[in-house]
Amino acid sequence: MAEERSGGEKDEKRERSGRGVSRRGLLIGGAVVVGGGAALFHEELGRLWWRVPGVDKQRNDGDVDHRGAQWIAASEANLRYADRPADFTVDRVVIHVTEGSYATAVRVFRDPLHAAAAHYVVRAKDGHIAQMARELDVAFHAGNREYNERSVGIEHEGFVDKPETLTDVMYRSSARLAADICARYGIPVDREHIIGHNEVPGATHTDPGRHWDWDKYMRLVREAARRST
Ligand SMILES: [Zn+2]
């Protein structure tokens, strides 16, 4: 399941407050004066502008990155605005199992106090997909700042100790989603790039667990990738 952000993310969140933004604005202004040249100004802006909320890409309610997904916005407290893949290379898909129901996952990701969310939640009974964070944004799901920045997180309704909760229709729907993500960012379809939450460096979570059928999942992702090309 999604995991609380690291300490670094908390600092980042403070930066997003009004005070942090204006301080950032002063820093950018200061760079202009110090450098005295347009080149440095643009270099500074190029490095920093994405940190300032409200100046990046248009965010339209209802727009989704994966066709057929349903947009259900997570609380913005559980993610960080970014402009991926322009500011961070996206080269990992992180697989989670929620240890709870689809409805619970959707509810807690909408809760600003939960401190975690994934980009997608897949429902067990029919493979329905909720997109809760935009792929351009960094969702707090991996418990590792670098891996949050470089990955798209997929939650699956179910329990790691109850293999019967991991349904065939959910595997298939998720595999189509993972293949779509890999195609859009040029991510190789292999186990180095499609990983479990437990494989994130420093992970304290064990999901998706020993019953997650990686052989089946990777076969389905490869098939979906082949069909779409
Ligand atoms: Zn997880």
TrEMBL record:
Domain of life: Bacteria
Cell membrane among keywords: no
Catalytic activity, as annotated: Hydrolyzes the link between N-acetylmuramoyl residues and L-amino acid residues in certain cell-wall glycopeptides
N-acetylmuramoyl-L-alanine amidase domain mapped to chain residues: 79-209
EC annotation from Swiss-Prot or TrEMBL: 3.5.1.28
InterPro entries: Amidase/PGRP_sf, Amidase_domain, NAMLAA_amidase_2
Signal peptide: none
Membrane-spanning intervals of the chain: 21-41
Name of the top EC class for this enzyme: hydrolase
Any matching Pfam family: Amidase_2
Alphabetized UniProt keyword annotations: Cell wall biogenesis/degradation, Hydrolase, Membrane, Transmembrane, Transmembrane helix
SMART domains: Ami_2 (SM00644)
Protein name, per record: N-acetylmuramoyl-L-alanine amidase
